[in-house]
């Protein structure tokens, strides 16, 4: 058994360290994807609570395993964040690579009005 970190854990740690260095007071848009669903939430780390959230679990008519569903989640989380008064965020992709569903979610959130 290996005692080292997996590549996913290394990417996650590297990404989060960079986010903390440049985030300032901005909340972070955290993304998690699984094989069936994708989840996004805007987290205020200073207060320690979630400002807005969206996922494919709440959309009964869409499967989470495609780019169209990820775009819809990005749009919905941006609308919820704007309604809560958040306009600027930092994008926390975790250990996921920035392509496919993660990229579609980010682009949809940008188009809906979030700045990052």
UniProtKB/TrEMBL annotation:
Keyword Ribosomal protein: yes
HAMAP family hit by this protein: Ribosomal_uL18_B
Species name: Sphingomonas cynarae
Residue stretches spanning the membrane: none
Protein name: Large ribosomal subunit protein uL18
InterPro entries assigned to the protein according to its UniProt record, in alphabetical order: Ribosomal_L18, Ribosomal_uL18_bac-type, Ribosomal_uL18_bac/plant/anim
Domain of life of the source: Bacteria
Record flagged with keyword Coiled coil: no
GO cellular component, one term: ribosome
Region (Disordered): 1-31
Family statement drawn from the similarity comment of this UniProt entry: Belongs to the universal ribosomal protein uL18 family.
Skewed-composition ranges (Basic residues): 10-31
